[in-house]
Amino acid sequence: MSWNTFGRVLRFTTWGESHGPALGAVVDGCPPGLRLSEADIQPFLDARKPGTSRFTTQRREADEVRILSGTFEGQTTGTPISLMIENTDQRSKDYGEVAKAYRPGHADYAYDAKYGLRDYRGGGRSSARETAARVAAGAVARLVIPEVTITAWVSAIGGDAVDPANFDAAEIGRNPFFCPDPVAAARWEGLVDAARKDGSSLGALVECVATGVPAGWGAPLYAKLDADLAAGMMGINAVKGVEIGEGMAAAALRGEDNADPMRPGVDGVEFTANHAGGIAGGIATGQPVVVRVAFKPTSSILIPQDTITRDGEATQLATKGRHDPCVGIRGVPVVEAMMALVLADHKLLHRAQMG
Amino acid sequence: MSWNTFGRVLRFTTWGESHGPALGAVVDGCPPGLRLSEADIQPFLDARKPGTSRFTTQRREADEVRILSGTFEGQTTGTPISLMIENTDQRSKDYGEVAKAYRPGHADYAYDAKYGLRDYRGGGRSSARETAARVAAGAVARLVIPEVTITAWVSAIGGDAVDPANFDAAEIGRNPFFCPDPVAAARWEGLVDAARKDGSSLGALVECVATGVPAGWGAPLYAKLDADLAAGMMGINAVKGVEIGEGMAAAALRGEDNADPMRPGVDGVEFTANHAGGIAGGIATGQPVVVRVAFKPTSSILIPQDTITRDGEATQLATKGRHDPCVGIRGVPVVEAMMALVLADHKLLHRAQMG
Amino acid sequence: MSWNTFGRVLRFTTWGESHGPALGAVVDGCPPGLRLSEADIQPFLDARKPGTSRFTTQRREADEVRILSGTFEGQTTGTPISLMIENTDQRSKDYGEVAKAYRPGHADYAYDAKYGLRDYRGGGRSSARETAARVAAGAVARLVIPEVTITAWVSAIGGDAVDPANFDAAEIGRNPFFCPDPVAAARWEGLVDAARKDGSSLGALVECVATGVPAGWGAPLYAKLDADLAAGMMGINAVKGVEIGEGMAAAALRGEDNADPMRPGVDGVEFTANHAGGIAGGIATGQPVVVRVAFKPTSSILIPQDTITRDGEATQLATKGRHDPCVGIRGVPVVEAMMALVLADHKLLHRAQMG
Amino acid sequence: MSWNTFGRVLRFTTWGESHGPALGAVVDGCPPGLRLSEADIQPFLDARKPGTSRFTTQRREADEVRILSGTFEGQTTGTPISLMIENTDQRSKDYGEVAKAYRPGHADYAYDAKYGLRDYRGGGRSSARETAARVAAGAVARLVIPEVTITAWVSAIGGDAVDPANFDAAEIGRNPFFCPDPVAAARWEGLVDAARKDGSSLGALVECVATGVPAGWGAPLYAKLDADLAAGMMGINAVKGVEIGEGMAAAALRGEDNADPMRPGVDGVEFTANHAGGIAGGIATGQPVVVRVAFKPTSSILIPQDTITRDGEATQLATKGRHDPCVGIRGVPVVEAMMALVLADHKLLHRAQMG
């Protein structure tokens, strides 16, 4: 079932295909009185924008957002905010091959199995282009949670990880990889270039930290803060794993090594560790919320792969179109956006119940 | 915000605390005409039941389920199915210490930060006892998807993994660890015993595979099958990470190593790999759906830890009550239940849109 | 699709059949720290209870509610509140006739057309007995909105209306009809007795007023306060019409006769009329919220009616069982409960967005 | 709380203000493979369009709809359908008076009480202009339920009702009132002209009948077909009452007069009456679904009314702008659209549970 709305009280709905006239998001439930103009959204879209370096797809989109509703005299009114981004670089090409055969690793086969037809141009609705709409919605969500600071970065590409000792948040914006470690960033140039030249692609890890989240946001069950983050992150194209705090590694720990002891602190409590990633029992503890997300390597590669046609015949397919050699890189602004959207929703949920 | 309902059209709502009179689930949206009695649910509760070996908590609960509504003459009627399990072993003990101080790693502090008060007896609503209600609901969900077979097992405890070469599904039910590898099961006896004697605890990995899921269930965005599985699994107590298919490891792969090539097969298509874990673009491919979940080590340990009292004073706390030395073990039936609940929901969602 | 949950953030889910072992409601999203015990709920159930006069069904139910979760030391904890009422007077009778033929005016035929099977004992899930669960849930909702006073009454039975000049709120609890006009109450004794002796039944109008609702609760569209009230009221068994303020009569008015002029008042504004029934553009104006609801005459009558059997044969059916001669009378506590549930939900929704 | 999404599985979300650049709807959950182009939607928008006679507002809008997503090669793909209508006639006028004082009967005061600010230009989000988005969404919903025929008409204006003996469905499209009785239509010309010349306005009744709804759509409780219709209709601007079948009049009937007897018929059953309006116990009976809706007289009138300014000062206000003398007239396509949207949603819900 198509279900393009996310959130419980601060909800957003996205629409649009890779090669349709436009795509967009409707953000509903936003508090009134927040200053909002296109200038508050554009920088986040620019960060995600394709075609800005040789390490991302060469599709060129201005990704200019227009606010079509929900503001008045520069402020949100509390009514739905409609955001639209026109598609401008829908290169006319021959989609015959993709129309007839299924690209392995893509949604093509599953999509046809479900719907019986599909918009095969650039992946249609399954294209990562949809994430532009989420990034726009996320920019609105950030305004709802001024107390929170969200920072994401690529922490590994193709298994080559940043060195925590080199971590410098200021570096993230200085290289085309959202890499906080200048040494790793230098290595990744060669790594990604090589993969691109091989016609291959690389997976990546993205880490995201939110500071300033007050203790108490979240819920004990089902609408747990971590469960909603997991849903939000796993809902991003190409994501195959989500971790909170220690994540999968927690499974190898003993209780005393995973404990987050507390002692009296400035704001009443100080934690001396954060294995939990800022969430206990689904509720924020006041520590930084830490999420890690695994992006698989882009499925579109030039190396031919076995597949079948829509008629069930064996064939081979190499994806020649423009694509990201490492889709995780441009995932960074999307992960930040989903973090903002989930946290903003939980802020409103919290005050619904708690006043 | 308390939010104890999960699912989109096949929905369940759970209620109950560790030390209240009872706990339960209401399953709504179930198709009519399915044969259902307590005997269809009890075996799954028995598998999760505490007190069956020295490797789980010594709390003894019969965990007998009663169906209070939604069936007539042994069949579901299409109306809500109310399931109730009475708590019988609410040992009267002195909760003074837990009432006054926060157990590190537990929801205690976050809970108080949110609600300002909490039922501290046995963790209250945050107790893993709630998962009995999900297991009961999951047993109903299984009846909705007879075409699907779900199997979960513990694949590692405290970092000690099963050997895939030894995998034997028949072994899972033969040892107290839900372990498919008899050699590992033997090792784990010592491992868990040692942790228990140390007053410590161990994390665990649980893997779950669903076969028979038809290509097409799921959705391209937000209500993606993988996103809903991630939400469901991360919503289980003590879970800190969720992986689909290659999971976090996908981040270290190259495109050609992560590809799932296709060739003509018996049912039209045969995949020659399943890195995707049976889900592409949020939609089932028809391959086995593969999910891995990380359980942190039980936070309740006998080793004293630094913490604070409700009044903000420094103190130390050792959790002396009954507890599971490895909460992941009894997570196996819960993971299976969540898999069943998510798949059943998506089966109904699929036919809502597709007829 | 069975859908037994109502509300957006303060949600309740009901379950149970007329002749099952019990029925109940789970109330989720309730703020913590409210004093709640069975004694806060029982009076509302007693008001709705059958068998208290000859003008209601002779089924005798204690309708004793038990709180199974969500409270601790007499206060709500913010977790789901499970309420259960056992059925005690499930008179064993021969349901053969009702099992085989459809009672006109009842859900029997539609139910079979949908589900293919039904629990025909006392109407099963379609029985007005379910409203006990709502009344219990409504009692919890009242605690969420202490600023609001809700009063409902029967304003007409079988077309015989109360005289507004005789209106005395204190009278409502003094007669078996929830009638605010003692003169009308006296007339209704004869009216309802006559209908009962004829084996017939009567329709009724119920009016409900909520005072103290602050201006601002509600929403401009879809989740309008009036739209949610309409859904809640039309969802009560036997209700066929819902009016806000002037209601259907507004269609016959001119603009100046329907206007609600304003002038400066004690709290900033004073309205000099309330044709709107306290809701403008879906949002509360601060005036009393006024809803009127039409209950059809009980469909169960002793007068034989043409119908068909499950096999499609012509037959006649007279409903001999216990039933209310005027189901609208006992609808009064149910209407009040739905008013409380909708308003409490909107109070929480309002502060989610507005802080 | 702003909540601009309606529906359970076939959901639509609307956005836009009276004087913003555009308004629109996103329809989600639509089955794939339906032929859909702008030409399928435009006729319904044209029927609702302002400025087509002297009996509606003189605002002139082309109301041209564009489909921005969700179709491919003229067919729905199963992904969200984004519909946009640009506002073209946003007459620049002086809104100073309306900005400073509250129009009685409008949402102005309540809106300010809720949000603290409002887009006062033409009513902003509260403008009936929003209904264009619903009419567009409704046109899509109609494609989902080809088995159903929906017809609505104005059955009374200002208390002057059509004569059932004159009912001719073919007349509905032949006069500017959607009136099925040519004699009444002739009378209404004078009636509405007089009100307009007086600077006044008139209320109206709209009746809507859906035939072809199969027995079984709907649900026994909460998501009852009638409850969802009530929510949908009461959510339309200016609606103050909703009736199903006998509606409010049912309250004055005796059981035998309200009965809908059955006898064997062509499709198994034939009802000899339809007091229930095609819905019993929340589920369709297979008879025509009959809904009646009361529209209040347009609140914008030229006759000055007492009101207050935003600063709480007494003043008088006469609404001089363009407005409909009888907003109920253009409500006809909106009522039809809501009927289509609710029925289409319930068709999908029914098959979710029933297969």
Topology:
The structure is a homotetramer of 355-residue chains.
Chain A: E1 5-6, E2 11-16, E3 22-28, H1 38-48, E4 65-67, E5 71-72, E6 75-76, E7 81-86, H2 96-100, H3 108-115, H4 131-144, E8 149-157, E9 160-161, H5 182-197, E10 204-211, H6 225-234, E11 239-244, H7 255-258, E12 262-263, E13 270-271, E14 279-280, E15 283-284, E16 289-295, E17 305-308, E18 314-317, H8 331-354
Antiparallel strand pairs in A: 1-2, 2-3, 3-7, 4-7, 5-6, 8-9, 8-10, 10-16, 11-16, 12-13, 14-15, 17-18
Helix pairs in contact in A: 1-4, 1-8, 4-8, 6-8
Brief sketch in words of this structure:
Chain A has 355 residues and is of the alpha+beta class.
